[in-house]
Amino acid sequence: MAPTKVLTGARVVLPTGTVDDARVTVEGTRIAATAPGPSPAEGTAETVDLRGHWLVPGFVDIHNHGGGGVSFAGGTAEDVLQGVRTHLHHGTTTVVASAVTGDLDFLARHAGMLAELAQQGDIAGIHFEGPFISPCRKGAHDETLLRDPDPAEVRKLIDAAHGHARMMTLATELPGGLDSVRLLVEHGVIAAVGHTDATYEQTLAAVDAGATVATHLFNAMPPLGHRAPGPIAALLEDERVTVELINDGTHLHPAALQFAFHHAGRDRVAFITDAMDAAGFGDGRYMLGPLEVEVADGVARLVEGNSIAGSTLTLDRAFKRAVTVDGLPVEDVVAAVSANPARLLGLSDRIGSLEPGKDADLVVLDDSFELVGVMRKGEWAVTPQLA
Questions:
Q1: Cross-referenced CDD domains, in alphabetical order (predicted)?
Q2: Distances from the Cα of 118 to the Cα of 25, 84, 125, 238, 245, angstroms
Q3: Alpha-carbon distance values, 85 to 67, 79, 93, 201, 372 (Å)
């Protein structure tokens, strides 16, 4: 059995607030005690002095298409694992693999492979972003493969995921949209409104039918208007909805991010990466499903049409930007990258906060909010190199 690990001296963000000079004790794969917690018997523990650092829960990404040069949407099992490792090294200890629009039969086959990885615990499930989205707001999706959300076809993808479908993004105003939302809810799958041209009223109808997530709020939907408030107003105002935000400085102006936080509140925001292959890898040419993407200076755009094509974001960068650029309280950022997405996935009994009995998934940040350590289930994925 692995020795007990005692992490001492850090500023630890707990559900009740931040505790200075605190202690977190890890036994095996679980957190045994927090701030201050009992000291282990002398000679039995591995002690790490984290004075001058922050200790926060591992990050949870519910919308991620890949990284490390590989795609979750069409790669092999080993490709997916390489992408998972890339994001793990940036603090993401739980990741949902997102599939981009593709041929329905291909998506079903690929979901079967992803379901095996979910069964093994390598990913937390599958998110289908398309093909049931609006051609008016397609973003970086192949328009020729888009289709209305037929409940029978939605059910085909749910079944192909063998119980590991976590979320599906729909343009709920399309024919079959509301029935598909109800079907997803019936099968325990999160219905997300996104890539939509819906009106305010149509969006409210989707939420009443059971939709609970806004896929990358502001992006791939009509802008907020004073006569036609559209989906943004409906999704922000409804307490049943959690809004995804891509905090990379490209997808959102800081004022838009602060606007969303102000209206949704800290408990209804989930930071996502919407990452594609180039995350943690570098500039160059990539494929996003069947579409070619050019990444330059860390920004991904379609070669044809120049639409933003996902991001190259990692959640450690989103965290640092939220604190140092956007001026958000650290506790609010922790909620957005850990607690809120964990709750959405129905996993808050295991992950999302530093509490006794939960998985020992945690991230060490220095006083500039740079990542220096990552632990997943009690084992260091990135070992802190401390002076």
A1: NagA
A2: 28, 12, 5, 31, 24
A3: 9, 10, 9, 42, 16
Q: How confident is the model at residue 284 (pLDDT cuts 50, 70, 90)?
A: confident
Instruction: Decide if 214 contacts 193 (C-beta within 8 A).
Output: yes
358 and 328 in a common domain: no
* Residue 274 annotated to the active site: yes
132 and 66 share a domain? yes
Confidence grade of residue 118 (pLDDT, cut at 50, 70, 90): very high
pLDDT of residue 310: 76
Answer yes or no: do 41 and 90 share one domain.
no
Q: Is residue 152 marked as binding?
A: no
Sheet containing 284-288, strands listed edge to edge, beginning at the edge strand earlier in sequence: 284-288, 291-296, 299-302
- Residue 108 labelled as part of a binding site: no
Q: Which of 185, 233, 175 is nearest to 208 (CA)?
A: 185
Claim to verify: residue 327 and residue 216 sit in the same structural domain: yes
Is 387 a member of any domain?
A: no
Residue 334 has pLDDT above 60, yes or no: yes
For residue 360, what are its two tokens? 């020992």
Q: Are both 203 and 85 inside the same structural domain? A: yes
CATH number at residue 367: 2.30.40.10
Average pLDDT over residues 28-41: 77
Residues 86 and 120 in one domain: yes
Q: Is the pLDDT of residue 385 over 80?
A: yes
Active-site hit among 197, 274, 359, 361: 274
Residue 177: both structure tokens together: 């949209």
For 175, 237, 279, the CA distances from 190, given in Å and listed in that order, are 19, 19, 25
**Residue 219, marked binder:** yes
The answer to whether 195 is a known ligand-binding residue is yes
Same domain, 261 and 331: yes
Domain that holds residue 240: 59-344
Q: Does residue 36 have a cis bond before it (omega within 30 degrees)?
A: yes
Percent residues over pLDDT 70 in the chain: 98
Q: Is residue 308 part of a domain?
A: yes
Write down the pTM of the prediction: 0.95
Tell me the pLDDT tens digit for each residue of 72-104: 988 899 999 999 999 999 999 999 999 999 999
